[in-house]
Amino acid sequence: MKKFVLFLAVSAFLSGGVFAQTDSPGKPELSDTLVVLWTSGDPDVAERVCLMYTHAAKTQKWFDEVILVVWGPSAKLISENLKLRAKVKSMENDGVLLEACVACANSYGVAAELSKFGFDVKGMGKPLTDYLKSDDVKVLTF
Predict the structure, then answer these.
(1) What does residue 41 show for φ and ψ, rounded to 5 degrees?
(2) What residue range is the signal peptide (predicted)?
């Protein structure tokens, strides 16, 4: 019986049934899209963590597509902080896509301003849900 179980285990291993396979041996397949959900109203978190990583993810080609989503207090922060606005504009110039939650932006009275600044201001409940459910998207929250 032990020999039969060992035979089954070896057969499954050799046929690839035990481990998931990828297109390139030894290397897991990585997602092509990163969505960064920026919720914090803290300028230090924005400058030294969220925007720094998001920009690097695009410029260093860690992901093909990088999307920055402004949600909650970050909507107010980006509308008021000129240094952060300059950083986000640089990120947009390098290909980071900008999205913002319309409900959040409206609650802070900054929807029109974010739109003029280059954000796609829209309802974000369904898009965020789709991002979270997608196998091809990684979502990171700050």
Answers:
(1) -95, 10
(2) 1-20
Residue 32 falls inside a structural domain: no
pLDDT tens profile 29-82: 556 999 999 999 999 999 999 999 999 999 999 999 999 999 999 999 999 999
Closest CA to 34 of 86, 8, 69: 69
What is the identity of the amino acid at 67? I
Q: Which residue range forms the structural domain that includes residue 113?
A: 39-136
Q: What is the pLDDT of residue 44?
A: 97
Residue 66: inside a domain: yes
* Predicted local distance difference test score (pLDDT) of residue 131: 97
Q: Is residue 119 part of a domain?
A: yes
The answer to the question of residue 34 being in a domain is: no
Q: How many structural domains does the chain have?
A: 1
Closest CA relative to residue 33, chosen from 77, 81, 66: 66
Average pLDDT over residues 94-114: 98
pTM above 0.90, yes or no: no
Cβ neighbours for 55, distance < 8 A, ≥ 6 positions apart? 87, 90, 91, 94, 96
- Please report, for the domain that includes residue 74, its CATH number: 3.40.1260.10
